[in-house]
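Structure ticket #2291
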Amino acid sequence: MEHVRARRVYEEPEPDDGRRVLVDRLWPRGLSKVKASLDEWLKSVAPSDELRRWYGHDPQKFPEFERRYRAELKDPERAEALRHLADEARAGPVTLLTATGDLERSQAEVLVRILRARRSR
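Resolution: structure written out below.
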């Protein structure tokens, strides 16, 4: 699963992206579905609206956001979506896409860490 990475959905697709999966709950503003060049939109793995609003991409809240998000991922529907991503990552390269400007403090990056950690077990 070392071939799992996060990128901004607004960036041009790259040949080594592999499967491109949007992991945001909301569709990215100003982006057409054709331009996004997605293979899948997996809303069920995204943070809840409540958590997303609380976080508001405040860098100081990121550690607590990550803790709460990881707890949310234990919910059966989200856990199943995470298993699906893990299966995809075992099959080949996967790029998790998000609209956020702060990629390193996003749910996509949290998911990358989770998936890579699963690989190392």
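Closing remark: The first strand starts at residue 4 and ends at 8.
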